[in-house]
Fold:
Amino acid sequence: MDAELQSPGMRSGSRDLPAPPAAATVSAGDPLSFLLGRGDQAQRDSRRITAGLAALAVLAVVLVNVGVYQNAQRHVVRDRWDQLAVNTEMRRDQVRDLALRLRNEARFFAEQPHLRDAVARLRHGASAAERARLEADLDQAASRFGFRAVHLFDLQGRSLLAGSASGAHELGHLSDLARQTAQGGVNLEAWAEGDGEQAIGLALPVTDDAGRTSAILCFGIHIRDVMPPAFARWPGFGPSAGTYLVRKRGEDVQFLSKPPGASPLKAGDRVVESARPVRAAAMAVEGVETNVLLEDASGRRQAVVTRYLPDVGWGIVGQADRSELTQGMAVTVYGLVVFDGALLVLAVIAIWLWRRQYKLGLAQREREVTHRHAERVRAVFDTAFDTIVTFDGAGRVRSVNRAGTDLFGRDIFTRVLYGT
Structure:
């Protein structure tokens, strides 16, 4: 090739000819490899960021759920304790009013002058008509004041009137009560009938004109007849919740009504006051008013409210299984599940939108970088003083820079590239 046709690079010697293509190859390949490598790295970064955000979101939701649940539980438990205490105090007021009413009504009837006269005639041999009239008066008193039965006994506990309508079981308890009252003992007793019916007996002395006790008048009362239906079971609570009455008998605690739930104790049972299963009853009869968690005979923890009735010397215990205290948490749990589901849906949508926007932005930046790099390569390609010709794998000319066209002529490369 003539010297005047050679470019400056070609005139510098054959050893330097490979340098420009090598430089062009490196400058063209390195940015591409960089972009491809950064694209893979960006995908990995995107996945790591997404996983980190998801972990933080899950942790935040868990903390929110725990906080909301514990706060709701505290409110629910406090409200249930308040309900238990209010229900127990309402039953205490009902029992106190009922006991005073029954005692006043029984005393009113026992102090009637015509009853005293009838008892005096009965002791000295009353006629059949007088006996029948006295029996009618007792039946009328029972019906009027709401007693199950009214019986008249002598001081040895023998019935002074025949033809009693009461069962032998009830009559036997009332006879024992009359004998105890005549001896100066208690005038109130409780027991459970054969059919499980809870009964209470009240005994009052009938005095003569001299003030001496001439007979004992006993009143039989069934709890179901005088207590409100909601006394043992409360609305909003399960079968483990309810109230029962107790009183102190020496060193024992006597149950005047059956405890709620599956307790084996029944009306009339007496248990030593120091026994573990009756700690709540013992506190009630000793006048200790408190709200506390105690274990029953089976070891289950019970929420217990104890109250005292000083007017009659009884205690009342309201109790419910500990699980009853958190019964209202089902609504909170359902609300948290709905809340978590909504958050999950929103989080999935937000992550999808973020990843989509992130990928679009990444692709846009890659296009911009590639375009700028291509422009720089094109500028270097066109402004090089050396002739640069590129070929494909088949040996066909693919491109030529401006120095090449100036060297060989534009027409030659036009025919070669476009076949014209």
